[in-house]
Design goal:
This protein is mainly beta and about 120 residues long. About 0% of the residues lie in helices and about 55% in strands. The protein is built from no helices and eleven strands. The strands form two sheets. Strands 2, 4, 5, 6, 9, 10 and 11 form a seven-stranded mixed beta sheet that branches. A four-stranded antiparallel beta sheet has the order 1-3-8-7, with no helix packed on it. A hairpin with a 6-residue loop joins strand 4 and strand 5. The N and C termini lie far apart (about 40 Å). The model has no long low-confidence stretch (mean pLDDT about 95).
């Protein structure tokens, strides 16, 4: 099994910055992608950013130019640097990994516990 542990959430003022971290551990053969999702109250969970094993990235339109995802493959850690935060960024942010635990075993999705990000004056 793969465990994902998130940190870095909290309260920040509009226009401020926050950096989220997610460290993967456990039985890991290869992690193909590490992603960040978020879910605001009364809304569906949405994909925010994606980072592949080769550190290729893509972002939701709503965060392009403000958020940056990065990945340290040696440490199996993914980060989300969030700048110019807006109240509409308020949500629970979830780390997600698409990973293979063993040779011959199909890859699966794994999820962190979520960390609250609140953007408010």
């Amino acid at each position: 099994q793969v465990q994902l542990v998130e940190s870095g959430g909290g309260l920040v003022q509009p226009g401020g910055s926050l950096r989220l971290s997610c460290a993967a551990s456990g039985s890991i053969f290869v992690i193909y992608t590490m992603n960040w999702y978020r879910q605001a109250p009364e809304k569906q969970r949405e994909l925010v950013a994606v980072s592949t094993i080769g550190s290729s990235t893509r972002y939701a339109d709503s965060v392009k130019g403000r958020f940056t995802i990065s990945r340290d493959n040696a440490e199996n850690t993914v980060y989300l640097q969030m700048n110019s935060l807006k109240p509409e960024d308020t949500a629970v942010y979830y780390c997600n990994a698409y990973a293979r635990t063993n040779r011959g075993v199909p890859p699966s999705d794994y999820w962190g516990q979520g960390t609250q990000v609140t953007v408010s004056s």
